[in-house]
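R.M. (postdoc): so does anyone remember the format we settled on? I'll just put the structure tokens first.
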């Protein structure tokens, strides 16, 4: 599994300082990265930017040294507990108040799966082909009111206590209790987005789906399009990591069965061809030429004929040559003049001889 697209935002928005923190730090994420963290320093507490940075760095660094088999919700909570202790130690060392807190959202890719953990109202989305398959539930007062049916989602956007959190990593409180969720199936082209609540002030779920669909078509600049919703409009800081996944294609069982079937047929054809070749070369009966002897001739007559031929040849050898025969002086001797024989083609017809002039001066008949 690799990442084909990585987008991020880390903007100050309408605040004087940026209390959000993203890990890896902006501009350093690569296609091989498997761990992404987005934290939002809790507004109203002192040193929120310190809390978000320490928690993100503490958990991220620890995960880089962790075996994948250990990843689960209790393990993440132990890492958050260690991060909380680091907040306390930092505050004491620098003589700061321990009234510092942060939200926490985490995405880890493990083989062909993904693990998500969160604490507070920073969200994580899993989106496939324009559909939101999973979205974290905010640990906030208004979210609980929406679940209970006391207020609508639209009323939650303007509720006076919309920023009140039920969970966070807080140095002044007990150990945090993050939630966790496994994505057992991650497919090629899936999107994952981690974001702070500031990004969602003016962007809803429909907007997110629309923007990703347009991005897949190559018709928009995704980051610039998100900025149009947030820039000079969001009162809070707004940050995100948005990544697109590339996975190896998995063959379905039906395809595997079909492939095996074709391989079996091919093997049968090869074996049949080999058997035919062996039969033709080693087991085909040899052809024997039949010699026909006439029935009216026996072996003795053939032997007698052979003897007569030998005797006739001997008599010719004893006979006088033709030049010793007597002849009359006045008998003219016939001279034999050879007559040129015309060339003939394959059908037996005479062929005229044509002399072809060669530019070199020689002739070809």
């Amino acid at each position: 599994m690799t990442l084909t697209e990585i987008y991020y935002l880390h903007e100050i928005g309408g605040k004087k300082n940026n209390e959000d923190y993203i890990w890896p730090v902006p501009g350093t994420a690569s296609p091989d990265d498997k761990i992404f963290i987005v934290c939002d320093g809790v507004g109203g507490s002192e040193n929120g930017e310190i809390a978000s940075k320490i928690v993100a760095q503490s958990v991220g660094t620890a995960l880089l040294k962790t075996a994948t088999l250990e990843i689960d919700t209790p393990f993440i909570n132990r890492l958050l507990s260690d991060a909380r202790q680091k907040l306390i130690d930092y505050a004491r060392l620098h003589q700061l108040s321990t009234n510092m807190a942060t939200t926490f959202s985490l995405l880890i890719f493990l083989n062909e799966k993904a693990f998500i953990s969160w604490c507070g109202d920073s969200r994580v989305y899993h989106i496939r082909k324009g559909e939101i398959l999973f979205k974290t539930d905010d640990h906030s007062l208004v979210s609980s009111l929406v679940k209970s049916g006391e207020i609508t989602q639209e009323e939650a956007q303007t509720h006076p206590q919309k920023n009140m959190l039920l969970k966070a990593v807080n140095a002044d409180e007990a150990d945090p209790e993050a939630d966790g969720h496994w994505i057992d199936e991650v497919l090629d082209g899936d999107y994952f987005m981690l974001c702070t609540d500031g990004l969602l002030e003016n962007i809803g779920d429909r907007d997110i789906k629309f923007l990703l669909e347009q991005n897949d078509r190559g018709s928009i600049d995704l980051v610039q399009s998100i900025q149009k919703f947030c820039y000079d409009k969001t009162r809070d800081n707004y940050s995100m990591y948005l990544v697109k996944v590339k996975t190896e294609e998995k063959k379905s069982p039906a395809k595997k069965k079909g492939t095996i079937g074709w391989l079996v047929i091919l093997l049968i054809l090869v074996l049949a061809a080999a058997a035919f070749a062996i039969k033709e070369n080693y087991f085909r009966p040899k052809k024997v030429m039949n010699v026909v002897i006439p029935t009216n001739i026996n072996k003795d007559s053939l032997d007698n004929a052979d003897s007569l031929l030998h005797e006739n040849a001997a008599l010719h050898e004893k006979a006088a040559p033709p030049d010793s025969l007597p002849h009359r002086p006045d008998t003219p001797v016939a001279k034999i003049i050879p007559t040129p024989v015309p060339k003939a083609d394959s059908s037996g017809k005479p062929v005229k001889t044509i002399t072809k002039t060669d530019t070199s001066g020689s002739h070809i008949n």
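R.M.: ...and that's the designed sequence above, right after the tokens. Also worth knowing: Helices lie at 48-64, 73-93, 141-148, 153-157, 205-216, 222-230, 253-283, 299-318. The two ends are 80 Å apart (CA to CA).
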